[in-house]
């Protein structure tokens, strides 16, 4: 598939879905299957075991069953914006059919396009891509924690717990000496 086959569009600001609440964009879903053909076996299993649960969880989505003789199973999703998508499900097992139905339910119905920006550069970053482990020691990746080497502060050789305990002792001793001086 060439890059020209995918529709292109500019990045736009999209308004939030609904005013104050989420509005499901899927208005109708049609399950097409054959009652006797073996290729529709998983679709029939999905309809028998999972469709009732789907309809109970999504009362705003209308579900239709359309038996068709000697045709591969498919799902037709119709959205509030008027778009209609057909997905062939031959060879898909029940968990995969569940995932595709959920995918259709959560879609906005907007056509999938290759997003392009108004600005373009051949070198997006002169510094490279940063990630949280960029300047970390690679030895840490193979170390089991807690580790004596990585838990000690390199300058003093003491652990962070030792330093916190020392600070606490200093604070408590200064508080006791201050209260002792005020008592005289």
TrEMBL record:
GO cellular component terms attached to this protein's record: ribosome
Cellular compartment(s): Mitochondrion
Name of this protein: Large ribosomal subunit protein mL43
Gene field: LOC101864497
All copies of domain Ribosomal protein/NADH dehydrogenase, residue ranges: 35-108
Keyword set includes Cytoplasm: no
Signal peptide positions on this chain: none
SUPFAM superfamilies attached to this UniProt entry: Thioredoxin-like (SSF52833)
Family label: Belongs to the mitochondrion-specific ribosomal protein mL43 family.
InterPro entries with a match to the protein in the record: Ribosomal_mL43, Ribosomal_mL43/mS25/NADH_DH, Thioredoxin-like_sf
Membrane spanning stretches: none
Alphabetized UniProt keyword annotations: Mitochondrion, Ribonucleoprotein, Ribosomal protein
Organism ancestry: Eukaryota, Metazoa, Spiralia, Lophotrochozoa, Mollusca
Top-level taxon of the source organism: Eukaryota
């Amino acid at each position: 598939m060439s890059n020209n086959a995918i529709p292109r569009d500019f990045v736009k600001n999209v308004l939030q879905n609904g005013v104050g609440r989420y509005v499901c964009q899927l208005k109708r879903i049609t399950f097409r299957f054959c009652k006797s053909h073996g290729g529709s076996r998983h679709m029939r299993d999905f309809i028998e075991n999972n469709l009732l649960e789907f309809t109970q969880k999504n009362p705003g989505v209308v579900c239709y069953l359309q038996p068709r003789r000697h045709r591969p199973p498919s799902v037709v999703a119709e959205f509030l914006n008027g778009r209609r998508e057909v997905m062939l499900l031959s060879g898909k097992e029940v968990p995969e059919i569940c995932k595709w139905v959920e995918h259709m339910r959560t879609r906005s119905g907007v056509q999938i396009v290759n997003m392009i920006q108004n600005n373009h550069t051949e070198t997006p970053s002169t510094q490279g891509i940063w990630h949280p482990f960029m300047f970390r020691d690679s030895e840490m990746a193979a170390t089991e924690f807690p580790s004596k080497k990585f838990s000690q502060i390199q300058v003093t050789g003491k652990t962070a717990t030792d330093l916190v305990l020392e600070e606490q002792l200093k604070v408590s001793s200064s508080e006791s000496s201050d209260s002792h001086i005020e008592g005289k």
